[in-house]
Amino acid sequence: MLLIIGTVRIPPEKLAEARPVMECMIIASRAEAGCLEYSYAEDMLIAGRIHVKEIWHDQASLDAHFASDHIKAWRAAWPELGITDRNLLVYEIGQARAT
Fold it and tell me: Global pTM?
């Protein structure tokens, strides 16, 4: 499994405009084969910081995601939405277990 975790920044004044675009990205990504989890969350203390968490079954699933039309549309929207400071890392992980 692959875990992607990190943050992006959106100017606080652009958040309302960005929400429907992010919602489309989340819905489409969650529907993809191999997507186990896909979420964005606003930071409670830093306006405009969005936390990203994705879990993918394997590299082939992630590669298909990166080639999808919805990710191309999402990335094309970044300049207009002012998205900056994209800081995402991919981790290979084993099986999850309860704590």
Answer: 0.91
Task: Retrieve residue 94's tokens.
Answer: 């084993």
15 vs 34: CA distance, rounded Å: 29
Q: Span 2-92: which CATH code?
A: 3.30.70.100
Distance CA 64, CA 49 (A): 27
Parse the chain into domains and list their residue ranges: 2-92
Query: How many residues can be counted in the chain?
Result: 99
Chain centroid, CA 35 distance in Å: 11
Q: What CA–CA distance (Å, rounded) separates 51 from 62?
A: 19
Over residues 33-65, the pLDDT tens digits come to: 999 999 999 999 999 999 999 999 999 999 999
Residue 84's DSSP bridge partners are 9
